[in-house]
């Protein structure tokens, strides 16, 4: 199961080279690159960098915080949090190619000392109890059936009182998800929880939920703009296609329907350990 999830995301073990080449051919100078310049590639979730900035702003972060990013992908959220709040961020992700690319991309923007990325499974975190001041996870749990284990692990590694911030895609009330979507080409690796499931999973893991924000309306505008741009230019403005391949335009169109028909919702939870 975890192998199928990792190969869904990337079988390209030279992803950093491909991203660098794509940026260079678009006229970008890697020497003067800023974190925000990478956002169309490395903020791999609905509403992009804006969503990460909003989430990180609620996590009580400062220069002495050490944060865990669970399912860190290409490292965009980790770099955004580190750059904005001066904190250290350790990312863990199932997909080795993403961890390697995330490490390279942090070096490109001078954040190699504040961020690090390690391959691993969210349901078996390789860290000691109470190791982190805070943790976040963005658009990851849709690939994880054993969410109880994932959230129990998050609770175990965060210090008492620390914030666990979750931003995820949930099952909406409008019907089954239409596939393919960016996290799964077909349902066997997709495990979307309902809003009711999320409340009991998070409280069941021992977290106190402090705030819940539903951003589905904004997510709908995000995909409408994306597909309108694709129709105008004939190609996706985001470079997620580099690792999702030629299925990406169909995935984006399905997401417009999924979100418009409320087959999915996007919801954030701010929890205290
Ligand atoms: C849609 S991407 C989101 C990446 C990143 N959080 C972001 O928002 O840019 C989902 C990520 O979850 C990772 N993932 C899925 N299942 C996982 C698991 N069991 N443990 C760790 N990472 C996992 C995938 O490898 C992928 O990088």
What does this structure look like?
With 273 residues, the protein is an alpha/beta fold. The protein is built from 11 helices and 7 strands. It has helices spanning 2-9, 15-25, 39-42, 48-56, 76-85, 96-108, 147-157, 195-204, 216-233, 241-244, 248-260; strands spanning 66-70, 88-93, 115-119, 132-138, 158-171, 208-214, 264-272. The protein has a 7-stranded mixed sheet, with helices on both faces. Helix 4 (48-56) packs across helix 5 (76-85) and helix 9 (216-233) packs antiparallel against helix 11 (248-260). The chain starts with a helix and ends with a strand. 46% of the residues are buried.
What keyword list fits this structure?
single chain, 273 residues, alpha/beta, seven-stranded mixed β-sheet, 11 helices, 7 strands, 41% helix, binds S-adenosylmethionine
In a few lines, what is going on in this structure?
The chain is of the alpha/beta class and 273 residues long.
